[in-house]
Design goal:
7 helices, 183 residues, 61% helix, mainly alpha
Length: 183
């Protein structure tokens, strides 16, 4: 039974020396990979570095490269999300500025057609940034095939069974002039 007054574990320190060394090693592995090094070569080179285990392997090099790439992708996603937020804020400011001119509160005042056109373009840009069109897109229907599979070659059937798109397989047979039946 735990006492409610006991302190919980402190959160992990992202700047702990061991974590910093791990990130440095992952970045070195990624730099070598970008230079065309194989995972075997990365492992050999990094084993020579101070603080890296002599048991460092190709699998470790692969894992380090993947971790570095995931960190980069996460950072890019965060930056893209921040840029999107900034762009949406800017569009909201433009909308707020021009809306009263486009749709005047007073029925006596005519709408400014240029402002109305601008407001519509702001709304369109906002919808594009938020990808609203995808919410209303009709689901893609699979293309029907009318093919006698008994006339397909065993190679074509194997390609389809292995997961290749059947339409692509049949199209490649037609394009190469091999026809459907070579079993």
């Amino acid at each position: 039974m735990t006492d409610s007054n006991t302190l919980s574990e402190p959160p992990e320190n992202p700047a702990a020396p061991i974590k910093v060394r791990k990130i440095d090693r992952e970045n070195m592995a990624l730099d070598l990979r970008k230079q065309g090094a194989s995972y075997r070569r990365i492992a050999r080179q990094l084993k020579k570095q101070d603080g890296i285990s002599k048991n460092y392997s190709e699998g470790g090099a692969y894992g380090d490269v993947m971790n570095a790439l995931h960190r980069l992708l996460k950072k890019q996603k965060e930056l893209a999300e921040e840029n999107l937020r900034i762009d949406l804020d800017r569009l909201d400011e433009l909308f707020a500025k021009f809306w009263p001119r486009a749709v005047p509160a007073s029925p006596d005042k005519p709408p400014d057609l240029l402002a109305a056109s601008f407001v519509l373009s702001v709304l369109d840009k906002r919808a594009n940034l938020l990808n609203y069109a995808s919410l209303f897109a009709a689901p893609r229907q699979p293309t029907a095939l009318n093919v006698d599979v008994t006339k397909l070659s065993s190679e074509a059937l194997k390609r389809i069974v292995d997961g290749e798109d059947p339409i692509s397989v049949i199209a490649s047979l037609s394009a190469s002039g091999t026809g459907a039946s070579q079993a």
